[in-house]
Write a structure and sequence with these properties.
341 residues; alpha/beta; TIM Barrel; six-stranded parallel beta sheet; 13% strand
């Protein structure tokens, strides 16, 4: 039973939260301000102009105009970052003074856009969940803070994207009320180790290799939606990846999903459009134009992660006669049928 051709776009919106623990400084703050003022509005315009919805996975701490009370969060210490996790965050600052950290206006902009965009979570404070130093207590608190913000903003606790794709504590995520998450990318070629997989991903970008189509599955009672292709930023050695190759991979993915069905899941950080701007914005704009045309022609459809999860659960309930988001079945796959099935 072939899955109806489906494209999913997930966007990890972080501002300064995404990499302060690795590279804090003026360059990071400048990139984050650009993302707040230019990057997100431009990207949202490309999406709406082409009639394309996306899943915006947003760091919860940046969704308000200032930092909420974080005294209830257990401290976390990582080998690579010895400071308190909130050490660099302006304690009494707000979005008007520190748009590199806070983006309540961006959340409002995204929520008001048409077609309707999905607002999900990229954790509360961008802690890597699967790294040494992380604790279950902090993970539970992170999920709880996200759920509180969702309730405050009347948002569904549907989709979650783990910082740095470090997936962990799935049962706790499920218990917090979330229904789906982005799993690590499925590579066009399978590798025996993460190091080889990383090298393979770089090679795929340079050669324009056709990305892999994926399917949703159930893990720990959550709908798992793997990535197909990450659009890498154009800084450092990555700037030598030809834009034509980046766009070729995206177009190959669209053609593959149109022909074979499945899910073509593209993801990236809006912050990544900053380096060598407007190089990557132009690549993404061309991709969204082609995707929009294919959606209008009904060659493919474009769904949010939450929509994929809902459809998955509905189909699973039809097949197995009971809801699936209860953790009773930990690892199985169900295809979403095409309209012709």
């Amino acid at each position: 039973m072939m899955t109806q051709p489906t494209v999913v776009i997930s966007l990890d919106l972080e501002l300064s939260w995404g990499s302060f623990d690795h590279a804090y400084g003026e360059n990071l703050l400048k990139m984050a301000r650009w993302t707040h003022d230019i990057g997100v509005p431009n990207l949202l315009n490309h999406l709406t102009r082409n009639g394309v919805p996306a899943s915006w996975a947003i760091v919860g701490a940046m969704m308000r105009s200032s930092l909420p009370d974080v005294s209830g969060l257990p401290e976390v210490r990582y080998p690579h970052f010895k400071k308190s996790w909130f050490d660099y965050v302006p304690k009494n600052g707000d979005e008007s003074a520190h748009p590199e950290w806070f983006g309540a206006s961006l959340v409002k902009m995204i929520r008001n856009a048409l077609p309707r965009q999905e607002v999900g979570f990229h954790s509360f404070s961008h802690v890597p969940f699967g790294w040494p130093g992380m604790t279950r207590e902090r993970a539970v608190a992170e999920f709880s803070y996200c759920a509180q913000i969702a309730k405050e903003f009347a948002l569904p606790t549907t989709c979650f994207v783990f910082p740095r794709n470090s997936v962990a504590f799935l049962r706790e995520l499920r218990d917090a009320g979330f229904t789906c998450f982005r799993e690590v990318d499925e590579m066009p070629i399978r590798f025996a180790s993460r190091t080889l997989a990383s090298m393979g991903a770089v090679l795929a970008d340079f050669t324009g290799l056709t990305p892999r189509m994926v399917d949703a599955s159930l893990k720990e009672g959550l709908v798992s939606i793997p990535g197909s292709l990450m659009v890498r930023y154009a800084a450092g050695w990555r700037k030598y990846i030809p834009d034509s190759n980046r766009l070729r991979r995206l177009k190959k993915g669209l053609e593959r999903v149109r022909q074979t069905g499945g899910i073509f899941h593209v993801w990236f950080h809006p912050e990544n459009l900053y380096a060598e701007w407007p190089r990557l914005e132009n690549v993404v704009a061309h991709f969204l134009e082609e995707l929009g045309a294919m959606v209008r022609n009904r060659d493919v459809r474009c769904l949010t992660m939450g929509q994929v999860a809902t459809e998955f659960q509905t189909k699973a309930a039809e097949q197995f006669g009971s809801p699936v988001a209860v953790g009773s079945m930990d690892s199985w796959v169900v295809s979403i049928p095409s309209e012709s099935d």
